[in-house]
Amino acid sequence: MRDLNAIFTIAFRDVTKFLRDRSRIVATFMFPIIFVGILGSSIQSNLAGKSGYNFLTFVFIGTIAQTLFQSTASGIISLIEDRENDFSQEMFVSPISRYSIILGKILGESIVAYVQIIGILILGVVLGVPMSFPDILKILPLGLVICFMGGAFGILVMSQLNSQRSANQIFPFVILPQFFLAGVFTPIKTLPPILFVLSRIAPMTYAVDFIRSVYYWGKPEYSQVVLFSPLTDFMVIATVSIVFIASGTYFFINNERNR
After folding, report:
1. DSSP letter, residue 23
2. How far is CA 121 from the centre of its chain?
């Protein structure tokens, strides 16, 4: 019970910080407007049905998965801020499990990610994205798996960084290439050998493909937009998440002890 209280308290703290940060709220909704509204609409108009499926929907679903993964991962950067303010030291000396602290951070940033998803869904309605609401409701609970993977990835990356400045410089370099390698905006079924290997290594690839595989399940365009089966994606996500969160927590705790 003590660990559960700690998880919810840490999560509530992160959500409160997000709701008080107006600049972050505005920034989180700018990317979907650019990606879905501008990029997706322009490519869809240029293709004009040549792709065999609606490209705006393709980008929209990819953006949902990307937002869940990226928002949770980038939100873990607050651990670096807490470290610089010595707040993390206070948490780690408290009589609770170290994993409770990490899970609390992931839970809080997952809630923040879902707040952003609400804005993206509203944007989809405004832009006239041809989406099925039953299908959207079907994939939203599965987004928790994506959030957990994103949080685990963020923990692993942040455990190797020593300052918030280095995190702000290095993390975009790690996360932004995955937008393209994961096929958020463009299909990646056929790629040059080097990009093919990199795309299959990128964790976000399986997050995006998992959401799409569930959304397009049973639809004619399924084989055109999906790389792997939902079960394959889930197994990869589960395995990678466990490895990331175990190793990331281990490295982060060691860094705290050596400070």
Report:
1. H
2. 16
CB 226 within 8 A of CB 209: yes
3-state class of 101 per DSSP? helix
Enter the DSSP assignment of 86: T
Q: Which two tokens stand for residue 241?
A: 């998440």
Separation between Cα atoms, residue 37 and residue 34, nearest integer Å? 6
Residue 213 exposed, middle or buried by CB count within 10 Å (0-12, 13-18, 19+):
buried
DSSP label of 142: T
190-246: pLDDT as tens digits: 888 899 999 999 999 999 999 999 998 888 888 888 999 999 999 999 999 999 988
- pLDDT tens across 63-84, in order? 889 889 988 888 887 777 766 6
Specify the DSSP element, H or E, that contains 259. Answer: none
Sequence ranges of the domains in the chain: 2-257
SS3 89: helix
Q: Rounded to whole angstroms, how far apart are CA atoms 163 and 17?
A: 20
**Pairwise CA distance, residues 45 & 165, whole Å:** 40
- Classify residue 8 as exposed, middle or buried by CB count within 10 Å of its CB (0-12, 13-18, 19+): middle
- 186's CB contacts (< 8 A; 6+ apart) are 180
Buried b (16+ CB within 10 A) or exposed e, 55-85: bbbbbbbbbbbbbbbbbbbbbbbbbbebbee
User: Three-state SS for 217?
Assistant: coil
25 CB contacts (<8 Å, ≥6 apart)? Answer: 18, 19
